[in-house]
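Batch manifest, entry 17 of 40.
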Amino acid sequence: MVVWPKWEVYKECLAKDRIMSANGDFQDFKKQVLKASVQEIDEQAKHAPLMWNFLIAFAAKKPFFRSLIIQVFNKLMQVPSWVSAWEADVELHEKVQTLHEDLQSAIGAQHEVLKKSIAPAALKSVTLVRMDERPEEVRLAIERERMIDAIKEEAEEAESDEWVAAEEEPEAASAETACNPALSALQEGIDAASAIDDPSKMDSCGLSALNKLRIGCIRCAGDDQLFSQELDNAPRVFNFLLSLVKQHPAYINGVAEVINLLMASSWCAVFEKNQLLQERLRELPKPLQASLGLQSSKVLAHIDADARRMLAAGEVSDDMKTAFLPCLTDLVTESVRAPITQVADRMQSIRAPRTSGGGYPHARAQQF
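Output type: structure tokens
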């Protein structure tokens, strides 16, 4: 459900020139915009002039948020009433031309109306914007970001403060993170999974590690250059995922998401060659094997015959967990309740092949 922020906050932010402390305000608006339908955004059209002004002011002072700002521009320009509000306000056209030319070009690439507003020098570079800032790629990024926001909201509801802290001060990120935040997110998930080495840690930290892996894999989806840099960690991550879902079957959807994305990368070859991992897979209850088999033909090839028969007979249904796990607790998140048969389609929707926008030329030094 979309819960719009208090618009007075943005009026005050502009009036008192407190853009530098508006990270959270931007994040609140971004989250709602990305999850909202065109109709839901249209219903807030009276606030369009205010928010266009806020976005330009924020973009001028917060280069770290560049990709998210571009996503918001892209999404809002899908709403005719917000397009009209932009066209009608000549001052917005003047203000957007004060932004860095490179950013103007990226914003202009999102819609013809925006393109008409940017400076002539920036207009010349619109067709040369980075691949990840072209409209079709931005729309994929929007879906990835929407999924990540949902995961973070789940973590916040579970009273996990680490997600909130990570968003409040993104400028404090390391140089490595700034170079490629997607790779950094993947590494954070790998580190969290690798730190779990006994059942008690799996109970206390397993869900948090899984969520970090989900975020890292979603951020890297479709970019095998990033996954390949962490290839040496593949066995321990696969082992963590299989151990987690065996100990906590309620987390099957989150595990399935990660398995789906990893098996669409160079990590697939590691799984295919590792008999121990294949044996761990077959140790799972049949419904869990079948659910993971839905994510990749390479996984399907290694589940046992009974699990394959379940799939062939259509016995892995959307309500599989309800039948298999009648006593799910409040720890089961929205993504876990989502239909298991839809996981593969959702992951495919964000997995279009893309080229890494940066990152390390070599894999990081092994820490374990």
